[in-house]
From TrEMBL, chains A, D:
GO terms for molecular function: ATP binding; ATP hydrolysis activity. SUPFAM superfamilies: P-loop containing nucleoside triphosphate hydrolases. This is Simple sugar transport system ATP-binding protein. InterPro entries: AAA+_ATPase, ABC_carbohydrate_import_ATPase, ABC_transporter-like_ATP-bd, ABC_transporter-like_CS, P-loop_NTPase. PROSITE patterns: ABC_TRANSPORTER_1, ABC_TRANSPORTER_2. CDD domains: ABC_Carb_Monos_I (cd03216). The keyword Nucleotide-binding applies.
Automatic annotation (TrEMBL), chains B, E:
It is found in: Cell membrane. GO terms for molecular function: transmembrane transporter activity. It comes from the Bacteria. It is a multi-pass membrane protein. The keyword Cell inner membrane applies. PANTHER family: ABC TRANSPORTER PERMEASE PROTEIN YPHD-RELATED-RELATED, XYLOSE TRANSPORT SYSTEM PERMEASE PROTEIN XYLH. GO terms for cellular component: plasma membrane. This is Xylose transport system permease protein XylH. Keywords: Cell inner membrane, Cell membrane, Membrane, Sugar transport, Transmembrane, Transmembrane helix, Transport.
Length: 256, 349, 305, 256, 349
């Protein structure tokens, strides 16, 4: 079976800043690939290439075995790659349901927006995630950070076709909401989608992921199958090995 | 299998009870509407002729031409861009039509078609330049503003030796084209110009597009956060270019109405008008930063403008102070509008 | 005649193309696109073409900017300067500097009172005030009792002077109305509104042919009994005069205000000739009405009246 | 000892939205008060009142025993309350060091900006947090989400006087950086500062906090001393009790 | 005890090696500078007199008045606001000075002081209204623009019966005040106006304030993200009001130079100029959305403007096409500027 997405030795520079170099990984159908790493490690850059926001400078990028270079996010969407960005990609002044359907608006048979349908689906999708909004007509900008996150996730889940990419989806979420998101990730995987998940929380990453890609300062630090690594080792690797132990020790020291 | 235990409750305990008035002011145009009502009442009381049918015909006429442009400019502003060349474009299109019809002897309808093509091309060029260079549209369209202004004067003088083109009345097709663009209709024995109907029509279409179509949704999105809109798959470049072309189309419409109505056009017409369009749109609730606004609001903004301009004349105030009255009146209208909108926004949340 | 030295349509604006070595700079206070000043420009350029004089025409309604244009001409060491002085005080230094630099200066249109004082060689044209005055008198003679003077550019001193002149010439009640030349709908609507709210107005004095046409249609719209008189001509005004919709047009024959100074400068350079003996050379006003409109019509079409 | 901050039955509405009502808590010197709750529970609203961004509508708010109502964030800062906002409160187009010192610029004796000092302190403060920036002259807008967060935190720590308020400071941070932030929180507490910490991660909250305030839908759900509650119970409370268990069960079910 | 193991490394492996040219273009003004250089070279080659001392005196003079305003407006724009009343303010201040001196017979110095107070009051009012109402400054200052325009005309006609005030040369103190504001100095036998010195001085002061003082830091902050700046303790309201007052001060300076140099002032002076100030600032690198820009850049933007305006006259091009040339030239300058700035931004990251 060809992987849904396969990148090999991919590289990306912003002007003179090398944000990503020589990174390889695969995303298989029915599997979760988890990208981990420090702040500024290049995680968002990687998924922006996958999502068609930026284009890679070096290396190869294949979708279903076919060498590709997306010209726009629309292009990626049309190839079945849906993305939730870290900065959420919502339009603050627009209402919740209009944001939900942005770019994929439902229309009636006369070509007009089907507003009733739009509102209902949005309300349903959000309440499935445990978010009950007062009003899906309110501007997204007036939602709390976590609520906004949920809108973006609900949108990607609803429209996601083959690959679902999530950039730190649980960062701003409460315990319950985070749990719901993870459940969605697991559900999507079980429906046969390929999922790319970025997170800083090993407790969120470990239960759902099948493969871990560790980045550091733009380079791959390692790539592990779930069978190869335990949560303890993963956490240690995420924090850059030995450094964390010193820190934990110190934190405990201060507490005492 | 649902995870959430709480179904959305009919009444949310986190919402204080909304007052009746607050419910009324949920629409974004309501502020401008009240501003318009104030201006209307004010001049109806202060002057005699303002409220008459003849009076209404006068200020509606004035508002209509401004209104067509204001609505188009409002769409563009919601889409996050400016078009400073919109004012001179009304003259450019009229000049193209007039020169073709009077100098080359083309049929008026054909001339109108050519000038429409010209307008759309300029609009597309504006949009393409803005998107291609990434420069603010304020600067790019300022360039086209200056260029068109120069062209208008230069070409007119080159061809006619004077600064105006006249003599449309003798051209072929003037009557029929004039009927569509510049005729009058009677209400209560007073003639109203057909431009008023164009205005209403244009506003309705723009409003429907904005609120009821995918393209309308995209206009809000590209104005509110173009980068984000792009990442969810909205064709940003295409949408913005279409908006510039819409403005150009409106300028063509106004230019055509002008040339058919006055049968002559002056090369420096329209200069400075572009700001009035923007002002009317802002009075009507458009944000200068894009992503928010309404077509109906812009039309009402133009109405306020028209009523104030003509009302001052009806009131017989010394026209030396004209701008002072206008300034104070606009500021007052915007302030009322603003207070109301804030209130509305509080409710909407 | 000595035409054809320059066949270029845009006129002798490019000095390098002129056969003679005299360069004349015409600097007026008319705004670009103003109908009146357009004729002045045509006059100056025609003279340049015919006499082989390099003529450049520049204008700016802002006195400060106009002064800078004079400074610019002085630094170019042109052979002569023609300047209209709507605001003599502001141009004083610049004009005097030009005279000091040995450049002959001729003033046109307005500023005749200060012309000699500043050292100008001659003045061509007539004060706007006087033109307005005579228009006022003629309207009064036509039996009008209340006049509306339409200023199409707020704060333009030339236009204001015309209305002031009309006020003193008319004797009776004259009211100013401000409109905006860039918006014909607004012009028509405001004149209509004015006529609707004041039925006693029976004369409208427009200062621009386009305004005159708008005024005529406003009068119809307001079913008023007023009649229009105007400054300057275009094809529409000509036919309106024929049709009796416009009473008369003041014709300052401003073509000569552009043409004559170039001739005078040329003659001054070639033969040290002067004209007018220190007194202004008057170019107008003439009047165009039903009696002579046919004669003038043709020239108006070419932008020469 | 009077508490540094004491709020009693405090309430705040946005228009007709009641974002906060009847919430009471204290912040003592040398203690960490942790505010927990779902998305949209009103946590940010509470600390915005404490920080002088908004004003409360009802209830009483005392700083060092004195009834107070801040007219502006400057006012709060002058009372020694430094805040890191969830939306970071940085100016994207300004350089890192100018952002760091914004509002409290260092000047030379002639009254000019002391740019050298500014740059050095900024670089030092950030590298102490484990962030080594290429250039403190680069605009904050070009930093990654986590890097930006670190700038905001470093600033508050550097200028914080008596009370330090942190709204989800670890949300966007990598494991290592989060550890550093928690260390800072502990250090600040030990230096005798009062700290208010908002977080969704019980693993971050539990080690450092002395008191837990649980919010739900704008109301206090409970307030506990550390001695009164264990991490398990806390997590359960944060997620709204029973609901979580069902979810966890399901997540595991899906995984299996 | 430090936690981090890695000290900032001298060379960061994540940085590609910067090219020499890229290093050169780090300053934001460099784009405008190149634009200015292009325009300069162009007219130096195309015309004879442009490069002469007399020529330089002419275009520097033209640039200086625009430049003073452009720099002030640039500060305001960096602070995130517009002032559309800046243009008419130059006329208002001149009118106040002239009316006081010629009609009331006040000493010129005293008149200047009064008009300064008037200017600062209007500036403060603009700023206060903007901050108080939360309306966009575009709209508020549009109101004051219209109001001042009306006042200028109305008061002037009321007092003098005409549309201009003249006769300054006969007033007490004219000589000494004129020396400060409107005298000339000699370089190579050619007189340069003292306004050029004022321009340079104003630019230097503005630049130092912007880059080297706390207030300058605040200007960037309130323009870039006012709400965020407020949360970290920047006095947003005070800063913005001060910026409006700075613009008003500059308008007073220009108005005073004008009235003392031309000894008369016309009521409609300055209308339309406000956009040229904004254009010059944008050419100089200011963002329309605030938070980014440079004072020196704005000064150079004004220089481009001045050179282009006078250069076209030197070239003797038909003035009918003047605006066309200007439009093309501005667009070209901005495009060059933009390409360079992008490059610079890539480096800066
Ligand atoms: N548009 C850009 N221009 C220049 N540099 C950039 C740009 N976007 C990101 N970078 C730089 O590239 C590096 C990688 O950024 P990226 O956003 O991919 O990090 P990340 O792993 O997502 O970090 P975080 O966990 O904090 O979100 C960072 O050092 C960042 O400063
Ligand atoms: N300016 C505002 N206007 C109207 N409603 C608001 C405003 N700010 C917040 N709210 C509403 O008040 C409620 C509480 O918001 P708040 O930001 O305090 O939540 P939070 O607990 O910080 O959530 P999160 O964990 O997601 O950050 C939310 O429902 C939000 O929609
Ligand atoms: Mg990231
Ligand atoms: Mg929050």
């Amino acid at each position: 079976m060809t992987p849904l997405i396969e990148v090999e030795n991919i590289g990306k520079t912003y002007g003179s800043v090398i944000a990503l170099s020589d990174v390889s990984t695969v995303v298989n159908a029915g599997e979760v690939t988890c990208v981990l790493g420090d702040n500024g490690a290049g995680k968002s850059t990687l998924i922006k290439v996958l999502a068609g926001v930026h284009q890679h400078d070096r290396g190869s990028f294949r979708v279903e075995g076919e060498e590709i270079r997306f010209s726009s996010p629309r292009d990626a969407l049309d190839h079945g790659i849906a993305t939730v960005y870290q900065d959420l990609a919502v339009v603050p002044l627009m209402s919740v349901w209009r944001n939900f359907f942005l770019g994929s608006e439902p229309t009636t048979k006369f070509g007009f927006l089907d507003r009733r349908k739009g509102r209902e689906i949005t309300r349903k999708a959000l309440s499935d995630m445990g978010i009950d909004l007062r009003d899906v007509e309110q501007p997204v900008g007036t939602l709390s950070g976590g609520e906004r996150q949920c809108v973006a996730i609900a949108r990607a889940v609803h429209f996601g076709a083959k690959v679902l990419i999530l950039d730190e989806p649980t960062a701003a979420l409460g315990v319950k909401q985070a749990g719901v998101v993870l459940k969605y990730v697991a559900q999507a995987r079980d429906r046969g989608l390929g999922v790319v998940l970025i997170t800083h929380n090993p407790h969120h990453a470990y239960p759902v992921a099948d493969r871990f890609l560790l980045l550091k300062r733009g380079r791959a630090l390692g790539s592990y199958e779930k069978s190869e690594i335990g949560i303890g080792e993963l956490t240690k690797q995420m924090a850059g090995g030995a450094e964390l132990e010193a820190l934990e020790h110190e934190l405990r020291g201060v507490q005492a | 299998m649902t995870v959430t235990a709480t179904a959305p409750p009919a009444a949310d305990e986190r919402l204080g009870k909304p007052r009746a008035l607050d419910q009324l002011v949920k629409r974004p145009e309501i502020g401008a509407m009240l501003g318009a009502l104030l201006v209307f009442l004010f001049f109806s009381v202060v002057t005699e002729q303002f409220l008459s049918v003849g009076g209404a015909a006068t200020w509606l006429d004035d508002a209509s031409m401004l209104g067509i442009m204001a609505v188009a400019v409002a769409l563009l502003m919601i889409g996050g861009e400016f078009d400073l060349s919109a004012g001179v474009m009304t003259a450019s299109t009229a000049l193209v039509t007039a020169l073709l019809a009077t100098r080359l002897g083309l049929n008026v309808w054909l001339s109108l078609l050519v000038s429409l093509a010209f307008a759309l091309a300029v609009g597309a060029l504006n949009g393409w330049l803005v998107m291609r260079t990434g420069l603010p549209s304020f600067i790019v369209t300022l360039g086209s503003f200056l260029a068109l202004q120069g062209l208008n004067l230069g070409v007119t003088r080159l061809v006619t030796g004077s600064v105006q083109v006249s003599g449309m009345r003798e051209t072929a097709g003037y009557e029929s084209a004039g009927f569509l663009f510049a005729s009058t209709f009677q209400i209560g024995g007073t003639s109203f110009f057909v431009s008023i109907i164009w205005w209403v029509l244009f506003t309705v279409v723009a409003s429907v597009v904005l609120l009821r179509t995918r393209f309308g949704n995209w206009i809000f999105a590209v104005g509110g956060a173009a980068q984000n809109a792009r990442s969810v798959g909205v064709p940003v470049v295409r949408s913005k270019i279409l908006l510039f072309m819409t403005t150009a189309f409106a300028a063509w419409l106004v230019g055509s109405i002008n040339i058919l109505r006055y049968a002559s056009v002056q090369a420096n017409q329209g200069i400075g008008e572009e700001f009035k369009y923007i002002i009317a749109a802002v009075i009507g609730g458009c944000l200068l930063t894009g992503g928010f606004g309404s077509a109906v609001g812009a039309a009402i903004g133009a109405l306020i403008f028209g009523m104030a301009r003509q009302g001052i004349v009806y009131a017989g105030w010394n026209s030396d102070w004209f701008q002072l009255f206008l300034g104070v009146m606009l500021l007052a209208a915007v302030l009322v509008n603003n207070v109301l909108r804030r209130r509305a926004e509080r409710v909407r949340r | 005649g000595p035409t054809g030295t320059n066949t270029q349509n845009t006129g002798g604006n490019n000095s390098s193309q002129a056969s003679g070595d005299l360069k004349v700079s015409v600097i007026t206070h008319g705004t670009a696109g103003d109908a009146f000043w357009s004729v002045v420009k045509v006059g100056a350029e025609d003279a340049g073409k015919q006499l082989g004089v390099g003529v450049t025409y520049n204008s700016d309604g802002d006195p400060g900017a106009q002064a800078k244009l004079i400074d610019n001409a002085v630094s170019q060491k042109v052979g002569g300067i023609v300047v209209s002085m709507a605001n003599p005080d502001a141009l004083k230094t610049s004009v005097e500097n030009a005279v000091k630099a040995g450049i002959p200066v001729i003033t046109i249109n307005s500023g005749s009172a200060k012309s000699a004082e500043f050292g100008a060689m001659a003045h061509v044209g007539q004060e706007e005030t006087i033109a307005g005055e005579e228009a006022g008198e003629k309207l009064k003679a036509a039996g009008k009792t209340k006049l509306l003077c339409v200023i199409h550019e707020a704060g333009n001193s030339g236009l204001n002077q015309r209305c002031d002149g009309a006020r003193s010439g008319f004797g009776g009640a004259v009211e100013n109305l401000q409109v905006d030349i860039s918006n014909p709908t607004d012009i028509e609507a405001r004149i209509r509104a004015k006529l609707q709210s004041d039925a006693s107005v029976d004369g409208v004095l427009a200062l621009n042919p386009q305004v005159a046409v708008n005024a005529a249609s406003a009068i119809k719209g307001a079913s008023s009994k007023a009649q229009v008189a105007t400054f300057d001509l275009n094809a529409d005004v000509v036919s309106a005069i024929k049709a009796g919709e416009v009473l008369f047009a003041v014709d300052q024959q401003q073509y000569q205000q552009g043409y004559l100074p170039v001739v005078m400068l040329k003659l001054f350079k070639d033969n040290a000739n002067t004209l007018g003996g220190g007194k202004p050379v008057l170019t107008g006003p003439g009047f165009v009405d039903k009696t002579n409109v046919d004669k003038v019509a043709e020239y108006a079409k070419n932008g020469k009246r």
